[in-house]
Specification:
Blueprint (H helix, E strand, L loop, with lengths): L3 H30 L4 H4 L3 E4 L6 E3 L3 E4 L1 H10 L1 H16 L11 H18 L11 H11 L7 H10 L4 H11 L10 H5 L1 H23 L9 H10 L6 H5 L3 E7 L8 H10 L11 E15 L6 H15 L5 E12 L3 E7 L2 H9 L12 H12 L6 E7 L14 E7 L13 E5 L9
Parallel strand pairs: 1-3, 5-6, 5-8, 8-9, 9-10
Antiparallel strand pairs: 2-3, 4-5, 6-7
Helix pairs in contact: 1-3, 1-4, 3-4, 4-5, 5-7, 10-11
Length: 442
């Protein structure tokens, strides 16, 4: 007679083996239809976890309840494929990493809506399920508020909707796919850095593949939304001081280059050839200094005047360091809301100090980024810059962006949790600062 415990164990082993086969088949089918996902699809292992209600991932492993997974498979193979892809997308877009002070339930829902909107926009037979009218209506409502449906943008929109408990429950029931509790466990947070690095690498490789594939004439454009999401997520984040070095140029300045001067040959000549050195110190040195660039501050009513001032103070502190200036600089500080309100040209450290001492906000109207770019373009045409390296725009992101990329680097600078960035063009750099990164006013 068979031992009941042993029989149950064998049944569980058979169930786990079946689940692994189901997930492996889903991974293979997704790969056959979307080759650009090859690395990402293979980056997650599988592990049975009867304690969780459905499916979930910590960025390294897909954990599954065997009974739930088998039930999902009986419903249809396409649902397993969608769930697998949904979790891969959570990893690619770093949804499980802490991103400031957010309401947990709204963040979970925003992440699910964003990922489902991408999947519903990928017209592949292996994942296609006709969206319900309720789902389509939600996508349309959100599309009126943002160009690309990112989790951050959707989170903000959901909070502005002032949802009742019933409305929130209806949305959660429509878009819920996986369990997010693993995201908030201490173990998951401790693994944030290696996981983030791994998926950042996956995301960048995936973007490169998709951009290469989009050049093919025969390639359809049904993956355009996903590519836009990739481009948005892959924008570089910088330490602000390191970031300003991006606008520095290599140039010779008249001064003794101590690093390139060899004192051995110099003193040897003095001792043996009648005070005649064998070499002379170099009279110039190649150094990186900031020369031409533009700072634009958003002075609309939606921007905090205090934060604008602290941003300029921090920028001034960085520029005032000894290795930041040539003997002459050319920095334009422009204030703009829905029109250019002022332009002050700074050509020396003393001028910068005087400007900061008497700085006042001008504007407080609506927000439109285009006038500032048009104004800088006119300065460019007039020959106002020798070598314009770039433009830094400090804003909360709530405005109209230019469509065309300017002939210089552009960065939009935001304060974390005080901005909206879903419409930032893919050609622009996005820099997110903690409020603590800006020095308190003294």
């Amino acid at each position: 007679m068979t031992d009941p415990v042993r029989h149950r164990q064998l049944q569980e082993l058979d169930m786990v083996e079946l689940c692994v086969r189901i997930l492996t088949a889903a991974r293979n089918e997704l790969y056959l239809n979307m080759h650009f996902l090859d690395i990402s699809l293979s980056s997650l292992g599988f592990e049975a976890a009867p304690s969780i209600p459905a499916l979930g991932t910590d960025g390294f492993v897909i954990y599954y309840n065997p009974d739930y997974l088998c039930g999902l498979y009986r419903k249809g193979r396409v649902y397993v494929n969608r769930a697998y892809l949904h979790m891969v997308f959570h990893c690619l877009f770093c949804h499980m990493d802490t991103r400031g002070k957010r309401a947990k339930d709204y963040w979970n829902l925003a992440c699910d809506i964003a990922m489902e909107s991408i999947i519903d926009g990928l017209y592949k037979k292996c994942i296609h399920v006709a969206p319900s009218p309720f789902r389509r209506d939600m996508y349309l409502r959100l599309a009126k508020k943002m160009k690309v449906l990112t989790a951050e943008g959707i989170y903000q929109a959901l909070q502005e909707m002032n949802l009742t408990e019933r409305q929130y429950g209806r949305l959660a029931a429509e878009f819920l796919v996986d369990d997010h509790e693993l995201w908030y466990e201490d173990k998951t947070q401790r693994q944030a850095i290696p996981r983030q690095s791994r998926w950042k690498d996956n995301r960048e490789k995936m973007q490169t593949q998709m951009e290469a594939m989009s050049q093919e004439e025969s390639k359809s454009d049904d993956e355009r939304t996903l590519l836009e999401q990739m481009q948005i997520e892959n924008r570089e984040r910088y330490d602000y001081r390191n970031f300003l070095r991006k606008f520095a140029v290599l140039k010779e300045e008249v001064q003794v280059d101590q690093d390139a001067f060899d004192y051995i040959y110099y003193t040897y000549g003095l001792e043996h050839y009648g005070n005649m050195p064998l070499i002379e110190p170099l009279e110039s040195k190649e150094i990186f200094r900031i020369e031409d660039f533009v700072i634009v501050v958003d002075t609309s009513m939606s921007c905090s005047g205090e934060l604008v001032k602290r941003f300029l103070e921090e920028t001034y502190a960085v520029l005032g360091e000894s290795e930041s200036y040539f003997r002459k600089i050319n920095v334009h500080i422009i204030q703009c809301d829905d029109q250019v309100r002022s332009d002050v040209r700074i050509t020396s450290r003393d001028q910068m100090a005087e400007y900061m001492k008497n700085f006042t906000i001008q504007g407080m109207g609506g927000t439109d980024f285009r006038p500032a770019f048009e104004y800088v373009g006119s300065l460019w045409d007039q020959g106002a810059f020798t070598k314009l390296k770039g433009l830094i725009y400090f804003t909360d992101g709530k405005g109209i962006y230019p469509v065309k990329k300017p002939p210089y680097d552009t960065a939009f600078v935001f304060i974390k949790d005080q901005y909206r960035d879903e419409s930032v063009p893919s050609w622009a750099i996005k820099l997110i600062l903690e409020e603590s990164d800006l020095r308190e006013e003294k």
